[in-house]
Design brief:
By secondary structure, the chain is mainly α. Helices cover about 60% and strands about 0% of the residues. InterPro entries: AhpD-like, CMD-like.
Length: about 200
């Protein structure tokens, strides 16, 4: 039920050049970016922020960042971003057992205590009202340094923007993202919802 129609990938050549980043991440340029092109300053700023947030400068791996994104998107209910995050986690080498059991990260043996602390941080930071408290801080500092915590919160905050953008837009979801979501999230009831490509 797209609110605004995505523009052709050739609409803004600077955006197109920057968006090559997503060929590695997802295997395609997201419709969200193609919609942002209605105001190219937004699409370009978003891509540059995405690249900065997803850069690895510590021990927070690309796969963990995408699982953090998934937990955040699951907390807010954005099915578009859930699908993108699980697809990117897959493409960045998340273990098969983690992909298959992301819903059970708190108890499944595929996840370390450090990963659980990061994913719980994502869950609490994505809720309204915000649930980050002294206990979350204590657990984070057992495993991660301040720079790594900043990287994690960068991902959570980026997906806060994306969750609101894509759920409000009803951004049409791409085939590749649907395939990954069906494989890893379908058993828990994931559906396209408003992202099925129809109009409001």
């Amino acid at each position: 039920m797209a609110l605004v129609t995505p523009l052709d990938s050739n609409h803004d050549l600077e955006t197109k050049e920057l968006a090559a980043f997503f060929n590695e991440t997802l295997g395609f340029c997201p419709n969200s970016v193609l919609t942002m092109q209605h105001r190219p300053a937004i699409s370009k700023a978003f891509i540059n922020l995405n690249k900065a947030v997803m850069a690895n400068e510590g021990r927070v791996t690309s796969a963990l960042k995408r699982m953090i994104a998934w937990v955040s998107s699951n907390a807010t209910g954005c099915r578009y971003c859930q699908a993108h995050a699980i697809r990117a986690a897959e493409r960045y080498g998340a273990e098969q057992a983690q992909l298959d059991n992301i819903w059970e990260y708190r108890t499944h043996s595929a996840f370390s205590e450090a990963e659980r602390a990061a994913l719980d941080f994502s869950l609490q930071a994505s809720q309204v009202p915000n649930g980050v408290d002294a206990e979350i801080k204590k657990r984070l500092y057992q495993y991660w340094n301040e720079g790594e915590i900043v990287e994690m919160l960068g991902v959570i905050s980026l997906f806060g923007y994306l969750n609101r953008w894509n759920d409000s837009m009803g951004t049409s979801i791409e085939t590749g993202a649907v395939e990954s979501a069906d494989q890893y999230l379908g058993k828990h009831g994931w559906k396209k919802g408003k992202h099925d490509g129809s109009q409001y």
